[in-house]
Amino acid sequence: MKHVVLRAAAGLAGLALTLNALSISAADWPQYHGPTLDGKTPARIATDWSAHPPKVLWKTPTPGGFSVLAVAGGRAFTVVLREVDGAKMEVCLALDAATGRELWAAPLNLAKYDGGGDSGTPDNQGGDGPRSTPSVAGERVFVFDSRFTLHCLNAATGAPVWAHDLLAEFGGKMISWQNAASPVLEGDLVLVAGGGAGQSLLAFRQADGAVVWKGGTETPTHATPTVATLHGVRQVIFFNQSGLVACEVATGRELWRQPYRFSVSTAASPVVSGDIVYCSAGYGVGAGAYRISREGETWKSTELWRKTGNELANHWSTPVVLDGYLYGMFSFKEYGSGPLKCVELATGRVVWSQKDFGPGGVVLAGGVLVASTDRGEVVLVDPQPAGYKELARFKAIAGKCWNRPVVTDGRVWVRSTREGACLDVTPAPAQTAVR
Question: DSSP assignment of 298-362, as one string?
Fold first, then answer.
C-alpha cells in the first residue's frame, strides 16, 4: 500500500524536529509495557489531588480503538480509526506532547475487524478500531497493525522507513478479531509474533528491518510479549495459543515452554516477578503461576497454582506486581462494574477486591498505583495488601477507556475511543510518592 503522510509538521519547529534525533529519557513511556517493560516507571506525580487537582493540559480526538499513547522525545503516538480516500483505515498519529497538536498522520492498513461494532449492551459499546500501541526508539516509530504488518516510520515526519507483512512474507495466518499485540523493543531489536511454520516468532533489526532470528510454529494471540531476565538470561515470553514460550532475546533460542489452555482470545501479557511467571485469560480459562528453574542449560517450568473460571481472569488488562502481590483488573465482561483486585502472586489468593472499575488498566508510578476505569476516570491507589486505599480520583476523558494510563514525570496520559488527554500532575516540592 502506498504510504501517504496526511499532515506534516511545518515551519521552523517542524524542521528542528526533523533534524534532531529523538531521545528516550527516563521520563518517557516509549512502548506499551513502559520504560522498564513491566508496567512500571520511577516517574513522580502529585498524589494529593484534593489540594492540587490535575490540570488538563490538552484534549484531542482519538476516534476508534484502544491503542495507548506512547510518549517519547516530546511527542505522543497512538493509532486511530479514520476514513482515507473513502476507506476506513488505521492511522498512526504523532502529537506534540506539550499541546496535543497533530504533527503528522500516517495511514497503515485497512481497518477490518471480526465482530465488535457498537452492538450489545450500552456498557459494551466499545466499537471497532486499532488496539496495538506504537513503540518508539530514537528517530523510529514501530507500529504493528491489525493485519499483521509491522511498520517502521520516521518519528519526525511519519515517512515510511521499512515494513514487513507477516502474512505475505512469513506465511502467517489471520486470527479472529485480528492483531491486537504491540511490538516490543529490546536493545536494537523489535519483537513480534505472527509468522507461519518455523518462523512464527520473529526479531527484526530496528535500523533496517533485517531478520535477526526467527523460529517456532505457534499461533499468536492478542497478548503483547513480555521481556524479562530470569536466571541471568534476558528472554522474551510469547503468550501463544499453545501457551507460554520463552526465547533468548539475543539468539531466539527456545529456553522453556509452559502449555496453557486457549479459548476464544488471550489478550493480557505474562507478568514476571523473580523466577515466577503469571498469566491469565478470559472465557473461563483463568489464571496460573509458574516457577521457572534452571540447571545448566536445562530449563523447567513448575506449576505453583492454577485457577480456572473467571474469578482471576484478566480479560485484556495486564496486572502489575509489587512486593509479591498482583494489582489489576480481574474480571470478564463486567463492563463498568469489574473490580480492581490485590492477589497474592505465590498462591493466587484474593487479598482484597474493589468494585466499579471495569476493564480499564493499571501501571505503577513511583510506587503509586495509577488506574483507569472504563469510564475514563484516573484513580490513584496505595498498593498495599492491608486493604484498598484510594488516594485520589479524577474524571479525565469521555468515551470507552479499555486500556491502561501512561505516566511520565508530572504527567498522566489517557486515551479512549473518543479522545486522548494529558494531565498535569506535577508534585509540589515537598510532596513525595507513597513508597
Answer: EEEEEEEEEE-SSTT-BSSPPPEEETTEEEEE-BSS-TTTPPEEEEETTT--EEEEE-S--S-EE
Identify which of 140, 237, 127 has the alpha carbon closest to the alpha carbon of residue 193: 237
What is the distance between the alpha carbons of residues 236 and 246, in angstroms, rounded to a whole number?
A: 6
HEC string of 225-262 equals CEEEEECCEEEEEEEECCEEEEEECCCCCEEEEEECCC
Measured between alpha carbons, how far is 316 from 333 in angstroms, rounded to an integer? 10
For 286, the grid coordinates are 483463568
Q: CA nearest 392: which of 19, 27, 33, 47? A: 47
Q: Taking phi first (over 0 means left), then psi (-120 to 50 degrees means alpha), and beta for anything else, what does residue 267 get?
A: alpha
Q: What are phi and psi of 422, to 5 degrees?
A: -120, 125
Amino acid at 23: S
Chain centroid, CA 393 distance in Å:
22
Helix (H) or strand (E) holding 12: helix 11-19
What does the angle CA 185 – CA 188 – CA 191 come to, to the nearest 5 degrees?
40
For residue 50, how many other CB atoms are within 10 A of its CB? 7
Residue for cell digits 516510520? 153
pLDDT band at 336 (very low <50, low <70, confident <90, very high): confident
Containing 14, the helix (H) or strand (E) segment is helix 11-19
- Cα–Cα distance for residue pair 282/276, rounded to 1 Å: 21
pTM of the model: 0.91
Asked if the model's pLDDT at residue 410 lies above 90, the reply is yes
The answer, yes or no, to whether residue 210 has pLDDT greater than 90, is yes
| DSSP percent split of the chain into helix, strand, coil, nearest 5 | 5, 45, 55
Tell me the pLDDT tens digit for each residue of 168-204. Answer: 999 999 999 999 999 999 999 999 999 999 999 999 9
Give me 271's grid cell: 507478568
CA 249: distance to chain centroid?
19
